[in-house]
UniProtKB/TrEMBL annotation:
Domain TRAP C4-dicarboxylate transport system permease DctM subunit as annotated: residue spans: 145-609
Principal cellular location given in the protein's record: membrane
Protein's name according to its UniProt entry: TRAP transporter permease
Annotated keywords: Cell inner membrane, Cell membrane, Membrane, Transmembrane, Transmembrane helix, Transport
NCBIfam families: TRAP_fused
Amino acid sequence: MTQLPDQERAEHLTEEQMKELEERYDPEVRFRPLPPFLGWVTAIALFVLSCYHFYTAGYGIPQATTHRGLHLAFTLALVFLSFTLWNRRDTPHQGILAPLGLPLYDWAFAIAGAVSAFYVPWIFDDLAFRVGAPLPIDVIMGTILIVTLLEATRRAMGWPLPIIALLFLAYAYFGRSMPGVLTHPGADWTGIVNHLYLTSQGIYGTALGVISTYVFHFVLFGVMATRIGLGQLFIDLASALAGRFAGGPAKVSVVSSAMLGSISGSSIANTVTTGSLTIPAMIRIGYPRHFAAAVEAASSTGGQITPPVMGAVAFLMIEYLGVPLTTILTAALVPAFMHFFGVLVQVHLEARRRGLRGLTKDELPVAWTVFKAGWLTTLPLFVLVATLLSGYTPYLAAFYGILGCILVLIVQNIVRHDLKTAAVESVRETWDGFVVGAKYSLSVTVAAALVGVIIGVVTLTGVGFKIAYMVTSVAAGWATDLSAFLSVLPFEIMSVEAMTLLFTLFMTAVVCVLMGCGIPTTANYLIMIAVAAPILGLLGVQPIVAHFFVFYYGVLADITPPVALAAYAAAGIADANAFKAGNTAFRLGMGKALVPFVFAFSPSMLLVTEGFTWSEFFLSTFGAMAGIWMLSAAFSNWLFAPLRAYERVLLALSAILLVAPDLYATLIGVLLVLPVLIRQFPALRKDPLERATS
């Protein structure tokens, strides 16, 4: 990316530089440049794929296997047209070995992938007779599809997920040689292919079905909503509403990322889009560069947990849990609020500690003026949400949302141009939106299909329950040892059962974060619900709680070093130390790290769980808010004034007790906070600069 001096670098970031920055940190959008003719062929195919999904969303989805196979066939062909062998922006190839500028091996992969993916829908009428007794051609086609999926995912996302899939395949094949409880009878290659390729337990399972039936449509809606200016409206409204307060640009970053995240599930895209505006403003008023980058990264990762879109995971949940989308969206409300609340508190305390100003009146847009100019762009989102809340299918809601975006686009062009020019512009922008929307779906589709291989191995071998047994046994052993150590105390801090759950949650969280370092959130979630959900289920955790727990920790990986991609993208804009920005972003996102433990022990926070009570909800929610505030103060070394060392320790201890969803623990936490509040309270009457130097 072109380097610019100091803070001007971010302020003069062009659209091309933003695109280059996003590609650098997000391999899923690192598309290859194509020669003109092949570029047009690829664009037409992408447009047709979007049109197919737009039409079927409104007028009916075909039979499941046919729909999934057609979507996967198109996607595999397009992946090999769109991504290079080594995932870099190579110049187009030339010569007899590269027809139309594409190497022969890419053509071979594209054709093989498309044919093998559509083979199962093609033989669907005979499929019932093939399952359990596949023909040699079935095994050959299944093998080809598995190989092309491995290569397609490697190109679109890198090595981690294909390596995990290969390890699971090896486990399925060499089961007799596995040690201890992991041993199983094993399966020959024909049996493996039969299960993964010809049944609905593998590649053509729920994961691919959700991507092709729901996720594609909402990705397309997000792209079209951004095209009509909804994202920019959110940023401008956030500036008008939050910019005037202390540390204004940082609060604008938090609020705008929350709003933009409601229509976009990509952490890195959100970081680059809003960060190009908010990061230079944060630096200009006095925030350190690494802190400015961290604020934007931590805020932008909230997009995947913010209703109504929530990336792909919300739609996977409705299939795996068998509940309406409105249930998932309701359950996500409070935890999403907690994440942004945690970031907002820390940027506020940092601004107070540094005596940073808000934006001046001249630097701020007027909220009413902004909304009056852009209110039309909000209509598609309102239509989408209203359709969802009315009980219609998510894909029908997306259909009306996308249709609304197209109509708004037409109206905008009619206002700006004459009718002829408006018609041309509308067609061009709809074409571009449909092409880009389909492009953004490619990587998540091949990842979901490959995760189907992993899930298929889990169902074939029963390894999920074997791992669950091992983890709970280890956690129970640790809990017993700790309980014996604490037995000298005159009171019981936590029962053995609760400690077993705590240790199990901790191990699950660590695995989620480690896997998330190299695997996208959707794939991480799918693998963890196949492996970790049985673990939590053995301990009595409700399914929706278990799913949200692994989901939140998978998202956390985007701001967890050493592979905190959202933080590194923000650091690229801020010209900051990437690792320092990642560490700070993780600290700012601590609400997302703490809250899953809270709702695991107090499910009422999710509003829709069994045994919900308002008393438990208020205790856990307000206790968590107070705990996040106190821990933020301890990290920031500021509450109402600078903190003494012992006060930071008291606040950290009180935070742990306040977050714990227990009345007695909450009361003890309040008692620990009181002496700090008593000493700090007089500082509220002082001038901020006087407080900072006192």
